[in-house]
Amino acid sequence: MEVRHGEEGNRGWVFDGQLRNEPVRLLDLSPDLVSWVIGGENSGGFQEHSRVEAVGGEEAAANGGKIGKKIQRVEALVVISIVTDRRQIGIMESGDKSNRQLQRALCYSDVEKRDSASPSVIVIGGGTAGIAAARALHDASFQVVLLESRERIGGRVHTDYSFGFPVDLGASWLHGVCKENPLAPVIGRLGLPLYRTSGDNSVLYDHDLESYGLFDMEGNQVPQELVSKVGVTFESILKETDVVRQEFSEDMSIFRAISIVFERRPDLRLEGLAHKVLQWYLCRMEGWFAADADTISLKCWDQEELLPGGHGLMIRGYIPVINTLAKGLDIRLGHRVTKIVRRYNGVKVTTEDGRTFTADAAIVAVPLGVLKSNCIKFEPRLPEWKEAAINDLGVGIENKIILHFEKVFWPNVEFLGVVAETTYECSYFLNLHKATGHSVLVYMPAGQLARDIEKMSDEAAANFAFTQLKRILPNASEPIQYLVSHWGTDKNSLGSYSYDTVGKPHDLYERLRIPVDNLFFAGEATSTEYPGSVHGAYSTGLMAAEDCRMRVLERYGELDLFQPVMGEENPFSVPLLISRM
Ligand SMILES: Cc1cc2nc3c(=O)[nH]c(=O)nc-3n(C[C@H](O)[C@H](O)[C@H](O)COP(=O)(O)OP(=O)(O)OC[C@H]3O[C@@H](n4cnc5c(N)ncnc54)[C@H](O)[C@@H]3O)c2cc1C
């Protein structure tokens, strides 16, 4: 590998730790580059054992002036950033844990060095929250490196193109199609079209009642009147659970509260087909929380804030939003973080393969499930209240089994559903044909059912979904392609999204968000207002970035020199493009 001064731009990384075992020849040496390479007075940091081989040493020594010695073989390199505009490197990566110079870089010991150094941040996790935070800090002139464990960005936003058109295996709705939605400026500016699946009026239904086609297990369609009537009953039952909530000081599950309502109000109890339809509504509620009704907290289930404007499907997939936000960022894919060490004025982050990165602060934007699994070690340990929040907040599972058919053979409704005696046996399919024109149905199991299906092979899972479809449409033709998500067992997510479990307070989201020293936390599970959503994740990314900016710059005494983190600038309001057929 040969590196010239100025190659790859003077602003960015010249090369990085992947070259650790490869000799590097430095050509066209200039004072700036040399000073960074050889560990002189002005150095960014290399020492004796590096595999960097510098050529042209005599000349460099002459040019470099300050260095005053011949370049020799140097060692322990890993990342170099050249700075020609007087801004020194902010983040360093090292493969050598004993590199004293890198350790020194953690605590800027002299004032001059500190003043000329760029504030630096490591963002861990390249989902919506991490990308939003990295974008905001990058735009506020911070040195930012984002470490992402997967070989792709987006996290639980995952648009797949293998069918020849976009389909989302993770998030697909913008919940709250309105200008108050933090994501509206990005989506509006990109001109991404949305398909409205419901209006404003409900927490639970991201589809209007009239757009359902429900069937029993024998394939008989449930009369639309009954679907609407049971919908109204379900809303009455939920209202009655509020009375139960007022009466009982102890929390209980939403399932238990509904049982109490039935004891008190036998008129709300339904029989036969109506009972099955009611189970189906409950099954939809479980899908909203990605959890079974007997684990959802009565006290907290409706505490999230719902933005107005209804629910809009991202017709071209969600990933363009992420790609736009990620443009120009320094993102390291395949970097799974395993350890985070925090000290008074710096952090050191280690990845699975032993690379280390140091910076002024870090933003932890990995999923709650990953934090729960303890696969990232914090040193010192996180405070007890933070660990308790991680343990106590629930994380549920919802998956998608996406079936692609040669042609459409199902009714022209937005949602097809199977009603049954229990929520576990109920199921539903999103008809993407209505929104996108593609002959695709998306089966979405949640809670225990999703957990059970994740144990199957992809083929068996697709067969399972198809069998459900055959129950209601016996003449269904076989899918030509399928995709199956595994959000519960994928070690990069370990769950689909967070929810309130029984007996735990709703302020756990806030406790999860609150920074610990120079560690800041972002992600859907840190959003009190909009947990479990993309716009929630996005807004926590911006919040963490702003908190981090303030904290780091206060310490530098340079608060006035850097712009505030504003999120997406929106000089004029672009209306969102939403339609419905
Ligand atoms: C099936 C499904 C459907 C959904 N539907 C919707 C919807 O329609 N609308 C909506 O608003 N929301 C929906 N959501 C929720 C939404 O997708 C999430 O709330 C949001 O995307 C979370 O973003 P995040 O940045 O918090 O986390 P993620 O997107 O999960 O990002 C975290 C990142 O951290 C990375 N990571 C993990 N461990 C490490 C590590 N050790 N080191 C480095 N990186 C690591 C991960 O790979 C990931 O990229 C859905 C979710 C699922 C699963």
Automatic annotation (TrEMBL):
User: What does the entry give for GO biological process?
Assistant: polyamine catabolic process
Q: Does the keyword Oxidoreductase apply?
A: yes
**Residue limits of the Amine oxidase domain?**
129-548
State where FAD binds: V337
| One of the record's GO molecular function terms | polyamine oxidase activity
Which sites bind substrate?
Answer: Y443
Q: Which pathway does the database say it acts in?
A: Amine and polyamine degradation; spermine degradation
Keywords in alphabetical order, please. Oxidoreductase
Task: Give the domain of life.
Answer: Eukaryota
Q: What name does UniProt use for this protein? A: Amine oxidase domain-containing protein
Under the heading Gene3D superfamilies, the entry gives: 3.90.660.10, FAD/NAD(P)-binding domain (3.50.50.60)
Which Gene Ontology terms of cellular component type are present? peroxisome
Pfam families found in the cross-reference section = Amino_oxidase (PF01593)
Keyword Oxidoreductase attached: yes
What are the names of the required cofactors? Answer: FAD
Q: Which family does it belong to?
A: Belongs to the flavin monoamine oxidase family.
